[in-house]
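assembly run, all chains below
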Amino acid sequence: MKNVTIIDYGMGNIKSLFNSLKFLGYNPVFFSEQKSIKSNICILPGVGAFNQAMKLIKKKQILNDLETYTNNKDNILLGICLGMQLFFEESSENHNTAGLGMINGKVKKLSNSKNDILPNVGWFETSINPNKTFDYLKQFDKQKFYYVHSYVVEPIDSKNQIATSVYNNKNFCAMTIKNTNIIGTQFHPEKSSKIGLDFLETLIKNSIN
Amino acid sequence: MRTIARIDIKNNYVIKGINLEGLRKIGDPINIVKNYYSNGIDELLIIDSVASLYGRNNLFDLIKNITEDIFVPITLGGGIRSLNDIENALNSGADKVAINSMALENPDFLKEAVSNFGESTILVNIEAKKISEGKWEPYKFCGREKTNLDLNNWIIEIQSKGCGEILLTSIDKEGTETGFDVELIENVEKIIKKPLIVSGGCGSLEHIEKLMIKFKNISVAVASVLHYKTLKISEIKKIST
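ok done. output:
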């Protein structure tokens, strides 16, 4: 059984991610148990606040491991929701906090209008327009995935953005990539029913050498 | 609009009442949730209907069991009275918890819950009963106990403490299948700044259609129409998306 590492840094619900990987026939391994990433696919999950997440990542000294891991281009890193937001340089959630800085750009609130309803919760159609490396994700274009978030990533370079969805008639970034081995989703594939499981499985299958 | 299946549980059985009373046994929870999942339900709301009364939630094992092969958001409610309860719920595989009675006893509990688990994890469950023209009151313990609070003030208060979503159950309409409590929803819609899920009264597709025309950004939690097979999940989703 192929191992998939889940970075467990103490934020949010990782049980459903664990269960979904198991359901798909993989062997999910928590980083907190192994203390190193011993698979070539690794998932950075997260539900909660950006500043709190960065504090925990630093405290648990995960930074170096993530860097060493992603320097090897055969290793795939998938960030989900807050996990993807952490790839960016900075977030304004609670107070400005520096992120992992893998992708240029910031994390901002979806809307600053008092009349807009946040968090944005629900199943939203997602337009996916991947580059060559992630071409196999094209099959999920226009599918509905489950989102729950109040913040969004804003990559400076449009090359880093491969999908969008819509909030209040405005597009927001739904998926990001960096190089050939870092990819993130704003939605939760592990909570998006059969289509979400299919997405995870396709991504993992195409990433495993 | 999300279509959420509301599953009330008592002594290991899915039950259904009218006005949150006179409970009738529906069947085995595991079979029922698996059936709703495979038919495309958007979310599951699973409530231990006597937990608050007895001071504990008995559904952690059930949640553990169903989340091994059900992959839509699951909210667990009933008897969530401490941060430890929330942690147990999440560790069992729930994504969110629904809090009612404990919030009414100690509104600051919401603040604590949000700062520990993030607002998207915390759903406030309001069980509202009409007391006079244009006035509603939130109830405790699954509609069993009065609070003497005003519903609108209560909504303002919970939003100031923090939460990710609000579930509004109309006790007057619950289980009646006579349509959603439009008057109640109209009354609170303007002050609600969080995603709103309404529950109680759904008996037909027309009821949902009516709701969708009148209110934007609203989700529904339905029980009777699914339990008694009056409607198919696919039919509801067809009109709601």
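Chain B touches chain A at residues 1-2, 37, 40, 42, 67-69, 71-73, 90-95, 117-121, 164-165, 193-195, 217, 219, 241 (CB under 8 Å).

The CA atoms of residues 110 and 161 of chain B lie 6 Å apart.

not gonna interpret more than that til we talk
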